[in-house]
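Worked example 2:
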Amino acid sequence: MTERNATESTTPARNRLKTAASARWNDERSAEMWGRYADDVTQHDDRQAWEAIITDVVGEEPQQVLDVGTGAGFLAGLYAGVGHDVVGCDFSESMLDQARERAARDGFEATFTAGDAEALPFEDASFDVVTNRVLIWSLAHPGVAVREWHRVLRPGGQVVLFGNHPEDPTRSVGERAIRRLYGLALRVRRDGAATNLDDRTQREWNDAKTDLPFRHAPPSKIQALFDAAGFHETRVLDVAEEFDQWRTVGPWNERVPWHVVTGHKPD
């Protein structure tokens, strides 16, 4: 297992971040909200766009894929849908319950297991692809996590990170406000009851997340982190047009600048 080193702080403040994140994502109401979000996306035309980009980046040959921070199984289901063998890993049992329910309901095969993105419970060189979606911003020790992803990849394997840069300076204040309003709408149950966390958990998470080292990180910063971890042929793909999911799902047709950051473990 890769050890943390002096290049990345493990101060009490960073540990507090991790504790707050654990409480945030283990909350059942949070898991239910993200489960509904996954339903919204996968039941619209954007599913085809996601699957097309996955195939373009990873290829059509079946791969052994690890979805780190799988959450409600959104990305795992997409990879499985185009023929890959998928393991989804998350430290939230509530999220894993949502993922297993989704797999059973939607009829895709994937294995879901508990695990920490910064200390993965897998042997070296276990997977062909390590992937995740908007995970890195929520990590207390992103450098540690990326080195772990490198460790569990086979030589020649690929890391594939899907993300967006929500505070892109090219977007107007109005656009950003609309996205926040839509995010609030997603936090409302279908029966009208709010899905908000309890006050203490929400307050601790709000206080902690402002210190997350990769919060609002642009893709160039993620690419540099991949380079530092030993990945080769790193690149950033602008897939805003292909992945314009909020235009399809969001009631205000807002555009979000989706990107893919990739890199390969040397042979």
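The longest strand covers residues 153-164. Residues 1-7, 167-195, 248-254 have pLDDT under 50 and may be disordered.
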